[in-house]
UniProtKB/TrEMBL annotation:
InterPro entries the record matches: GH, GH39_cat
Signal peptide: none
Keyword field: Glycosidase, Hydrolase
Molecular function GO terms recorded: hydrolase activity, acting on glycosyl bonds
Residue ranges of the TM segments: none
Protein name: Glycosyl hydrolases family 39 N-terminal catalytic domain-containing protein
Family the UniProt entry places it in: Belongs to the glycosyl hydrolase 39 family.
UniProt domain Glycosyl hydrolases family 39 N-terminal catalytic: residue ranges: 140-249
Family annotation (Pfam families): Glyco_hydro_39
Entry keyword annotation includes Hydrolase: yes
Length: 443
């Protein structure tokens, strides 16, 4: 009996030590055994989610209707040599607006930059008038149909070689000019469009706006840091929260929301997981919208201007895996259903299309391990009538990272016919790797 008590005490001690180890290191059972669970309750109401999808520069009017229908971009940031005339600009902007896409017009882009060594070019920090003349022309041409993005990446020497203060002063001149023009008080102005999140820069910029009677409609910055695990997602959440705290200190500036007009860095430009992780995080932080950045492809050709839609298509028009991420995200917007994961090992986006009797889940492995076991916990599955069938079909698809190679369609991993009670507590028969996006369809 004494031996049994000692053994029992020993087991309890071991369990206590393990529990203390887990708590001290922030671990859970799921972390240790690399298992994540997605919880879905079909009693929750579906809702329409504002799209976080958007694009930069690249434009092919022949494809725009399909792009709008398939990908549902909310914003499109434009500028540069490909819209040289008023007629071309109006055609592009008319096409966007007719499809519910809000254009963001980069004012500095048609003006060009000092590094280009253009004969007769005037540095606005020395003499702002030529630039202001262009701003006036563009505003009188477009009015309040677009959002005005004053200058691209003024913290980057490729675009602005003078001091931060000199840019702030130029921003005020542009702001005051637009506000003074017909209906200019209703114009939407955004900035500072810096190359990355620099809280010191943003704090000084917002304070300058506050001290100089500048009304800024949308604060923005570009975000190119890799988003590929829970730590990077937590970091983005913290950074957005810290910027919102700065905004709250200056209510008179009138900032309505935040736009990220360039997201996704060069290393992840073809990734099918990066857009989903970005969009989910931006949604949770009530960001207004975002646009995908564009980079050179492996041939040295810039995806901004080769009709690849910032890299979503191959040069001959075939879809890449990143296109499927954007398309599946767009399909989730109208019928979004809340889903919750039990730890930081996964990200999920869920939608329930009652018209088609289909429950859809997008999954990304955000753990630090390349293989992740996933469980589904679905409450009130009886709410999914599935045309009164007694069994349901579970299908798992993979959208692998094909980089620049095309992907015609998601790869079917397996399909199972299940009873209703089986899907309420279901272990997916395939482990999720980190670089692929996974699609679950239950119908």
């Amino acid at each position: 009996m004494k031996k049994l008590l000692v053994t029992h005490k020993y087991k309890i001690s071991v369990l206590l030590v393990l529990a203390m180890f887990f708590l001290y290191n922030g671990l859970t059972y799921s972390n240790v055994f690399n298992t994540g669970t997605v919880y879905i309750d079909l009693n929750n109401n579906t809702y329409t989610q504002r799209s976080m999808s958007g694009f930069l520069h690249t434009f092919n009017n022949d494809k725009l209707e399909d792009i709008s229908n398939d990908l549902e971009p909310a914003y499109w940031r434009i500028g540069g040599d490909w819209i040289k005339t008023t007629e071309e600009r109006n055609k592009v902007i008319d096409s966007f607006i007719s499809r519910g896409i809000k254009p963001i017009l980069i004012l500095s882009s048609p003006y060009k930059y000092k590094r280009m060594n253009i004969k007769g070019w005037v540095d606005p920090s020395d003499n702002a008038q030529p630039f202001l003349d262009l701003v006036k022309k563009l505003y009188l041409e477009q009015g309040n149909r677009v959002i005005y993005d004053v200058w691209n990446e003024p913290d980057h020497r490729n675009y602005w070689q003078e001091s931060d203060t000199s840019f702030f002063i130029l921003f005020k001149k542009v702001h005051d000019l637009i506000r003074s023009l017909p209906n200019g008080q209703s114009a939407s102005i955004t900035g500072p469009s810096i190359a990355g999140l620099n809280k010191d820069y943003l704090s000084r910029f917002i304070k300058f706006c506050n001290d100089n009677n500048i009304r800024l409609d949308y604060l923005n910055w570009h975000y190119m840091a890799a988003i590929n695990n829970s730590a990077s997602l937590d970091n983005l959440n913290r950074e957005i929260a810290s910027v919102k705290k700065i905004i709250s200190q200056y209510p008179n500036v009138g900032i309505k929301s935040i736009i990220l007009p360039e997201i996704i860095g060069e290393a992840q430009q073809y990734s099918p997981t990066a857009p989903i992780l970005f969009f989910k995080t931006l949604e949770e932080n009530d960001i207004e919208g975002s646009c995908k950045a564009c980079w050179n492809n492996s041939k040295g050709i810039n995806n901004c201007f080769n009709n690849s839609l910032d890299g979503l298509f191959t040069e001959d028009g075939q879809t890449r895996s990143v296109w499927w991420a954007y398309q599946l995200y767009a399909k989730s917007l109208k019928f979004r259903l809340k889903s919750v994961t039990d730890n930081n090992l996964m990200a999920s986006i869920c939608s329930l299309n009652k018209e088609q009797d289909t429950l859809t889940v997008l999954l990304v492995n955000t753990s630090n391990n390349n293989q992740l076991t996933c469980n589904l916990r679905i409450k009130n599955i009886s709410r999914l009538k599935l045309r009164n069938k007694s069994r349901i079909v579970f299908s798992l698809f993979e959208i692998p990272d094909t980089s620049e190679s095309p992907l015609e369609k998601p790869n079917l991993i397996y399909t199972s016919t299940l009873k209703y009670e089986d899907i309420q507590n279901y272990k997916i028969n395939t482990k999720l790797n980190k670089t692929s996006l996974y699609l679950i369809q239950i119908h």
